């Protein structure tokens, strides 16, 4: 009789452990229409703790996500529902950004500082070149001329993705859209091993 109780107790413990593990691996769902855990990708990232011992999955439902994204946490999978229908977008000219900022952190639609990042089934775009047909003059405190103004052209630097010392970046079935400029810039402040995998 004691063996049966012990056996049942072990089975119950295993089922409970299995349920807890399954719950820990549940995807965080982002849906701009409100049918997920979050409506913004950045809010989903911010909800993650800093422990990166296990991969965390942020599943992004179809939609146009007009947000600048900052990733400073590691071991995250960003998985879109459909590459052609899950779109991360911003309209940013690097030349304008650098007028008020001392570095490129924030210059792209997707800004990475974390490592072990996977991007899957996403379109990441910077539409500045498509949105602006003419040259624009802007006030630029960082400009060395006496007028502190700068001419911004639609074919100047634009970045869809910018990484800062990110290691082990895997890109699967993604599309980058920008008129001209830089698709991906690696952080050069310290030597790193960078892996870009496009499958």
Indicate the overall shape: elongated
Residue stretches low in confidence (pLDDT < 50, at least 5 long) are 16-23, 182-199
Please give the share of residues in helix: 10-25%
Strand order across the largest sheet: 1-2-5-8-13-16
Tell me the CATH topology: Pectate Lyase C-like
Q: What's the main sheet like?
A: 6 strands, parallel
Count helical runs.
Answer: 4
Number of strands: 16
Name given to the CATH architecture: 3 Solenoid
CATH class designation: Mainly Beta
How would you spell out the order of helices and strands?
Answer: HEHEEEEEHEEEHEEEEEEE
| Backbone CA Rg | 22 Å
What number of domains? 1
CATH superfamily: Single-stranded right-handed beta-helix, Pectin lyase-like
The averaged pLDDT comes out at 82
What fraction of the residues are assigned to beta strands by DSSP?
A: 25-35%
Distance, first to last CA: 56 Å
Structural class by secondary-structure content: alpha/beta
Walk me through this protein's architecture.
- There is one protein chain.
- The protein has 199 residues and is an alpha/beta fold.
- It has a single domain (27-198), classed as 3 Solenoid (Pectate Lyase C-like).
- Helix content is 21%, strand content 33%.
- The strands form four sheets. Strands 1-2-5-8-13-16 form a six-stranded parallel sheet, covered by helices on one side.
- Strand 1, helix 2 (41-47) and strand 2 (56-60) form a beta-alpha-beta unit.
- The longest helix has 23 residues, at 2-24.
- The protein is elongated and about 90 Å long.
């Amino acid at each position: 009789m004691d063996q049966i109780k012990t056996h049942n107790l072990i089975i119950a413990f295993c089922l409970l452990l299995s349920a807890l593990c399954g719950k820990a691996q549940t995807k965080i769902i982002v849906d701009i229409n409100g049918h997920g855990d979050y409506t913004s990708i950045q809010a989903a990232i911010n909800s993650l703790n800093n422990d990166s011992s296990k991969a965390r999955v942020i599943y992004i439902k179809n939609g146009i996500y007009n947000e600048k994204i900052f990733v400073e946490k590691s071991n995250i999978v960003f998985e879109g529902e459909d590459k052609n229908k899950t779109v991360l977008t911003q309209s940013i000219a690097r030349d304008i950004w650098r007028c008020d900022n001392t570095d490129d952190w924030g210059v792209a639609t997707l800004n990475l500082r974390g490592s072990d990042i996977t991007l899957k089934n996403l379109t990441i775009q910077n539409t500045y070149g498509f949105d602006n047909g003419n040259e624009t003059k802007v006030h630029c405190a960082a400009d060395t001329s006496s007028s502190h103004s700068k001419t911004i052209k639609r074919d100047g630097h634009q970045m869809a993705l910018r990484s800062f010392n990110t290691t082990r970046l895997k890109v699967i079935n993604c599309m980058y859209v920008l008129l001209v400029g830089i698709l991906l810039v690696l952080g050069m402040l310290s030597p790193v091993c960078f892996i870009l995998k496009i499958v």
